[in-house]
Each structure stands twice: as structure tokens, then as C-alpha cells.
Write a structure and sequence with these properties.
CATH superfamily: Aldolase class I
Largest sheet: 8 strands, parallel, barrel
Distance between the termini: 6 Å
Order of helices and strands: EHEHHEHEHEHHEHEHEHH
Bound molecules: cytidine-5'-monophosphate
CATH architecture: Alpha-Beta Barrel
CATH topology: TIM Barrel
Length: 297
């Protein structure tokens, strides 16, 4: 389990790590802390004995991403990520840069992950805002396949796609999942949803497929966005009365979430937990409770 150090200063990060010392062994440094404190944040975490996942989600032309991955590798972090949606050439450049940099600096190579679909996006946002006309699951699998083809080690995905990814990508594939929300005390875990392969009538584009003739450009009708090609209208979700023993998990801006236990059982390798720890009155107690639920850090 990795704590997301989503704080805005080195002092806050250092204080949080101090409180979590002895409870957790790893942390995640993302764009907020890195933009504010820079490499000193990584140094601080490493000095305190935490291993670091650098979550900067690089997404740029291959040459720039390769150069950024080289610099990130130099810090001695154990894991980093890029956006898999940056394409095959970009992902390949990242994977190759990590190998080369680790060799040049004589340090272990960091694991390189592809971010699939952000946990804050649901199907509607993916289709209407990002313009991807498939299901979230199909797109996650598509991007994970692309990441593997590029030589990356694994991917970042929401807890709800872990089972699917494990099935499709095998045991060696590293799966990191944010969007973790512990049950409120006294809450009862819901029954796990069965793992379903994505809808064939809404298939993802094949990786390594043959380029099709370009479609003529058509402006979309904003008031009536098209259904995905070949898609089938789904039924409206039935209205469910709230279950008092199963109150909905607090989600913040995350949409596709799960409890720590469920994410682990589904096959995640690393859980990233932010606000349930950083926003708790007693971060050490919150982290300890999750560690106990998982059976170890
Ligand atoms: O506070 P919370 O537990 O939601 O934090 C989740 C962390 O994981 C944040 O730092 C967020 O940037 C990160 N993350 C994510 N979704 C991804 C990749 C990373 O939420 N796909």
C-alpha cells in the first residue's frame, strides 16, 4: 500500500511521513507535491526509508517523455508512470529510456506503468468528453494491451477493472489501483460483481490493427451525441433504496472505487490511498486500520 502524498509543501509531506513511519513503507508523489517541492520531496521520502512511486503521468512526444523518464530514474524511485493514451511510440520510448538510464546510472530500473482511464471518469465522461466511443472496461483493456506491446510493466486502473485486467493480462502484469475507499466503521462489504468481459458489440479498436480509410469529418450534434458505433442502448439502471448497513462509500472526485479488501482480492499489486489517510484526523490510525484489513502493508 502506498500513501498518496497529496500535500502542498515539503514540511507537510515530511510531517505526514513521520506519522506514517513504521506503518507504511511506500508513498506516491504526484504532481501537486512535485510541482511545489520538486526532487527534494523524493529525497525526503527516500531518506525516511519510504520507497517512492513517482506519479507524474508523463504525456508528451516520445523524445520528451524519454528524457523525463531518464531524469525520474536518476532519483532512485521504484515506480513511475506515463499516460498509455499517449500512444505506442511514446510508451515504448518511456520503457526503453528507463532501461537505458538505469544501466547508465548503475541503479535498479523503475517499474514503468501506463495510466489507463482515470478513476475519476465514468462511461459517460469517457464517451462525451474524451470522445472514446467504447465502454470504460474495453478502453482500459485496449490501453493495457498497448502498454504491454510497448514493453511497460503494468498499468494504473480503477479497482473495478482489476479482475478483468488480471484475467486478460496474466499474473506478471503489475496492477496499481487508486480509488480506494475503506468501509465506514460497522459497514458491511457488498458481494463482489462477477468479472465480465467487455461488450463485444462495443469493441475497442485493435492494437496494431491496420489503418482504415479516414472517415469524412463530421461535426457532432451536441444536443444528441451519437451512440458508439454498433453500440446497443442499455436499459436504465433500476432505482435502489439505500441499504443502511451498506451506506455508499465517500467518493470525493473518484467515480470507480472499491474497498481495500475488495481491490486486493481482485488481484491488485499496489493500492494507492490518499484522502482516506491524508484527510483523516489521525492519519497513522487510518493507515493502520487499512493495513489490518489487508493483512500487511
Ligand atoms: O485521495 P485519493 O485516495 O482519491 O487519491 C488517489 C491518488 O491516486 C491521487 O493522488 C490521484 O492523483 C492518483 N491517481 C488516480 N487515478 C489514476 C492515477 C492516479 O486517482 N488513474
Amino acid at each position: 500500500m502506498l500513501v498518496a502524498l497529496d500535500v502542498s509543501s515539503l514540511d507537510e509531506a515530511s510531517a505526514l511521513l513521520g506519522r506514517l513511519d513504521g506503518v507504511l513503507t511506500g508513498c506516491k508523489i504526484g504532481s501537486q507535491l512535485f510541482t511545489s517541492a520538486g526532487p527534494a520531496a523524493i529525497e525526503t521520502a527516500l531518506k525516511r526509508g519510504f520507497r517512492v512511486f513517482l506519479d507524474l503521468k508523463f504525456h508528451d512526444i516520445p523524445n520528451t517523455v524519454a528524457a523525463a523518464v531518464r531524469e525520474a530514474t536518476r532519483f532512485g524511485i521504484f515506480m513511475l508512470n506515463i499516460h498509455a493514451s499517449g500512444g505506442l511510440a511514446m510508451a515504448r520510448a518511456a520503457a526503453e529510456a528507463a532501461v537505458k538510464a538505469a544501466g547508465d546510472f548503475g541503479i535498479p530500473r523503475p517499474l514503468c506503468l501506463g495510466v489507463t482511464v482515470l478513476t475519476s471518469l465514468d462511461r459517460k465522461a469517457l464517451q462525451r468528453e474524451v470522445g472514446v466511443p467504447t465502454s470504460v472496461e474495453a478502453h482500459v483493456l485496449h490501453l493495457a494491451g498497448l502498454a504491454r506491446e510497448a514493453g511497460l510493466d503494468g498499468c494504473v486502473a480503477s479497482p473495478q477493472e482489476i479482475g478483468l485486467l488480471r484475467l486478460a493480462m496474466g499474473q506478471e502484469w503489475v496492477i496499481v489501483t487508486p480509488g480506494i475507499r475503506p468501509l465506514p466503521s460497522g459497514g458491511v462489504e457488498r458481494k463482489a460483481e462477477p468479472v465480465r468481459l467487455p461488450d463485444r458489440r462495443n469493441p475497442p479498436l485493435p492494437t496494431g490493427g491496420v489503418e482504415r480509410k479516414a472517415e469524412p469529418v463530421r461535426l457532432p450534434d451536441r444536443r444528441n451525441p451519437p451512440l458508439p458505433t454498433g453500440g446497443v442502448e442499455r436499459g436504465v439502471e433500476p432505482v435502489r433504496l439505500p441499504d443502511r448497513r451498506n451506506p455508499p462509500l465517500p467518493t470525493d472526485d473518484q467515480v470507480r472505487i472499491a474497498t481495500p479488501r475488495r481491490a486486493l482480492a481482485a488481484g491488485a499489486d499496489y493500492l494507492v490511498v490518499g484522502r482516506p489517510i491524508t484527510g483523516a484526523q489521525d492519519p497513522a490510525a487510518a493507515a493502520t486500520a487499512i493495513v489490518a484489513e489487508l493483512g500487511g502493508p
